[in-house]
Fold this sequence. Notes:
Elements: E1 4-9, H1 16-31, H2 34-37, E2 41-46, H3 52-59, E3 65-68, H4 85-91, E4 95-98, H5 101-107, H6 111-123, E5 127-132, H7 140-155, E6 164-167, H8 181-197, E7 205-209, H9 216-220, E8 226-229, H10 236-257
Parallel strand pairs: 1-2, 1-8, 2-3, 3-4, 4-5, 5-6, 6-7, 7-8
Amino acid sequence: MPQxxxxxxxxxxxxxxxxxxWAAEVADIAARTPAVADGRIELFIAPTYxxxxxxxxxxxxxxxxxxxxxxxxxxxxxxxxxVSPAELAxxxxxxxxxxxxxxxxxxxxxDAVVAAKTAAALRNGLVPVLCxxxxxxxxxxxxxxxxxxxxxxxxxxxxxxxxxxxxxxxWAIGAPEPAPVSxxxxxxxGLRELVAALPGRxxxxxxxxxxxxxGLLAELGDDVDGLFLGRFAHDPAALxxxxxxxxxxxxxxxxxxx
Length: 258
C-alpha cells in the first residue's frame, strides 16, 4: 500500500487542449518522481469526463491513476446525462470523487445520494474518493463528529472495498488559506481511526483537501495520509513541489516501519 496519497481535481477549469497538456506534464513529473514510480506515493488526477480517455493515454506507463469527478448511482438504464460507474471501470478509470460539497450545494446531493453512489462505485471496483466535511467553522471535535457521520452513512450498505476519505471543510474550499493545522490534525487523526476500524475497508486512507497546497503536508505530518489538491496543483510546478514533500514523508514512514 502507498505511504502517501496525493490527488488533484481539475474541476471544470481547463479546456480540452489545456487539460491534455497538463496531463502530459503530470505524467512527466510522475515518471521523474521515484516514490511515485515505486508505488510509495499514490498519485491520481480527476479531469472532466471528456478528458478521461486522453488523461488515461497521457499517464499510461506511469503509476498515475485517473479518477472521475462523479458517477451515477446506477450501472445502466434510462438515466439521461449520467455516467455509469461500470463504464468508467471499463475504460480504465480506477477512482471516483463522490460527495463533494459543490455537488451537495449546487445539485442537491444528500447523504442518501452519496451512499447510493458509493455503493455503485464499490460494486464496480472503483475506489471512492469520499469527500466529507462540515459546512460552517466549528470546533475540531464537532467537525470530526460531522465528518465521521458522513463516512458512516456513505458506507453503511456498501460492498467491501478501499476508500480514500477526503476531509474538506466546506468553509476552507476556495479560501485563501487551508483550515488551521491544529484543526485539521484533530479531524484527520480521528477519521483515520474510524476508517481503520471499519470492516472491509482495508487500505483506506484519509487525505486533506480545501485550499491545500505546497508546504501543508509537512505541517500535517503523521495525522494525515496525503492531500487532495485543487487549483494550486493546476500549476505542474506546484504539484511537483507537493510530491517532493510527499516523498520526504514517505521516506520517513518507511524508515519507521523498517
